[in-house]
Design a protein that fits this description.
Oligomer: single chain
Distance between the termini: 29 Å
Low-confidence stretches: 123-127
Number of strands: 8
Number of helices: 3
CATH architecture: Roll
Order of helices and strands: HHEEHEEEEEE
CATH class: Alpha Beta
Largest sheet: 8 strands, mixed
Number of domains: 1
Helix content: 10-25%
CATH topology: Nuclear Transport Factor 2, Chain: A
Mean pLDDT: 93
Shape: globular
């Protein structure tokens, strides 16, 4: 899971997709339609990475059980000239014996988003 956080924070869509099996399924956030396969997952993350200046993915807690792991996370996203966005949520992973992710579902919604104005801005605001 540490590698997942590091790669996500690197904003490298190819490295991110390489963490998954060729036929992996990603739902982010639930209940949006699933993205199936590395190419679809890479394209989704490339759009996400391109929309921000920086992204920091922090794992708060890990709960591994057999081939599954649930994590709580905090993502900090900055956009040039815009507010800093914070997303807090849960992801549930299924991982193969060779360490690749075969499935992941992310659980977060509008209530899990907060925004911080850039320095000199109007201060912190919550959505």
């Amino acid at each position: 899971m540490a590698r997942y956080a590091t790669v996500t924070s690197s904003k490298d869509a190819d490295a991110y997709a390489a963490l998954f099996t060729p036929d992996a399924v990603q739902v982010d956030p639930y209940p949006t339609p699933p993205r199936v396969g590395r190419d679809a997952i890479r394209a989704f993350m490339e759009r996400s990475f391109d929309a921000c200046e920086t992204m920091t993915f922090e794992i708060r807690h890990i709960h591994p059980v057999a081939d599954r792991a649930a994590i709580t996370f905090h993502i900090t996203v900055t956009v040039a000239g815009g507010p800093t966005m914070h997303i807090r949520g849960v992801e549930v992973f299924t991982v193969t014996d060779d360490g690749l992710i075969s499935a992941v579902e992310a659980y977060w919604g509008d209530e899990d988003l907060t925004f911080e104005e850039p320095e000199g801005g109007a201060g912190a605001a919550s959505m």
